[in-house]
């Protein structure tokens, strides 16, 4: 029999949250959740005894995500340039600082990238126990390990993550205000303002996946990054491109839109100690389609006339 007190559909947000953190991909997470529901319905039709819908669907989702990760790692070895997670819009109106800090920490791109240091099973154990609060007995059943082994895997994962894991400032308002000033300075091409808002060791990463113009290597240092984004602002003005501030993966960021409102790329900011520490730009169109209509960036560049060479840094070729 099934647990009548927990309808399967009500578990969709939880299952998506697990799959997305496992994979860093919105589209793949949605596919896996849907596959989990199909398998659940098939099991019911075959008369399988399911004592807990939550436990069954959590297990199926996690196992599918583990299998997907194993094959995805092979594909990422040939990925062109820096791989970044697919951006997830997280504007939800939540005002509680503690709740915001928890979301920002476990959904941030920095955290998802740190998870890449773990193998698929370690990642599953850590997320299920430390992020989603599953007991070790539940985790053991889901990943097919003993409870003692699951505890060991979680401990190992924490040690590996603690080397790079960083908590973000819990004040949403401060981060939003800094993002507003940052993107305003970008729009104005104001180098001095940008310098004041950037950490000395600020780093910019770009992800085009070989399917759109991208920065192939990280760009670091306050001087290079401030001049880069001043040039970004100038080119945006020339091309009629604008930014729309949004909360992305629990962090301040912006959708970058062409004159027709199509998305060219997404910027996500890491804010630490009141300054911008990291800027990530996702311009790979395959990673943006779930957000809305996507612009053809190369076509925009071809159609852009009278652009000085120094102004070509916003949408690199």
UniProtKB/TrEMBL annotation:
It comes from the Bacteria. The keyword Transcription regulation applies. GO terms for biological process: DNA-templated transcription initiation. Residues 109-161 form the RNA polymerase sigma factor 70 region 4 type domain. Pfam families: Sigma70_r2 (PF04542), Sigma70_r4_2 (PF08281). Keywords: Sigma factor, Transcription, Transcription regulation. Residues 9-73 form the RNA polymerase sigma-70 region domain. GO terms for molecular function: DNA binding; sigma factor activity. Interacts transiently with the RNA polymerase catalytic core formed by RpoA, RpoB, RpoC and RpoZ (2 alpha, 1 beta, 1 beta' and 1 omega subunit) to form the RNA polymerase holoenzyme that can initiate transcription. Belongs to the sigma-70 factor family. ECF subfamily. This is RNA polymerase sigma-70 factor (ECF subfamily). It comes from Pseudonocardia kunmingensis.
């Amino acid at each position: 029999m099934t647990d009548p007190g927990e309808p399967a559909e009500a578990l969709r947000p939880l299952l998506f949250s697990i799959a997305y953190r496992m994979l860093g991909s919105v589209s793949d997470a949605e596919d896996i959740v849907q596959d989990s529901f199909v398998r659940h319905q098939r099991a019911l039709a075959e008369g399988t005894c399911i004592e807990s819908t939550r436990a069954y669907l959590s297990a199926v989702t996690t196992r599918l995500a583990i299998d997907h990760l194993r094959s995805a790692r092979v594909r990422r070895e040939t990925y062109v340039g820096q791989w970044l997670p697919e951006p997830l819009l997280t504007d939800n109106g939540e005002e509680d600082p503690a709740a915001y800090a928890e979301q920002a920490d476990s959904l941030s791109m920095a955290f998802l990238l740190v998870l890449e240091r773990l193998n698929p099973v370690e990642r599953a154990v850590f997320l299920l126990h430390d992020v989603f609060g599953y007991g070790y007995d539940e985790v053991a059943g889901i990943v097919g390990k003993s409870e003692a082994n699951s505890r060991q895997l979680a401990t190992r994962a924490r040690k590996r993550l603690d080397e790079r894991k960083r908590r973000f400032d819990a004040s949403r308002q401060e981060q939003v205000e800094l993002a507003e000033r940052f993107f305003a300075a970008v729009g104005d091409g104001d180098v001095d303002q940008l310098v004041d808002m950037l950490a000395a060791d600020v780093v910019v990463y770009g992800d085009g996946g070989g399917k759109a113009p991208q920065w192939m290597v990280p760009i670091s240092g306050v001087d290079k990054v401030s001049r880069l984004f001043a040039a970004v602002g100038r080119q945006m003005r020339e091309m009629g491109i604008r930014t729309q501030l949004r909360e992305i993966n629990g962090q301040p960021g912006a959708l970058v839109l062409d004159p027709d409102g199509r998305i060219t790329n997404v910027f996500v900011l890491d804010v630490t100690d009141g300054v911008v520490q990291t800027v990530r730009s996702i311009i790979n169109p395959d990673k943006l389609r779930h957000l809305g209509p996507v612009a053809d960036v190369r076509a925009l560049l071809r159609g852009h006339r009278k652009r000085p060479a120094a102004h070509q840094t916003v949408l690199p070729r």
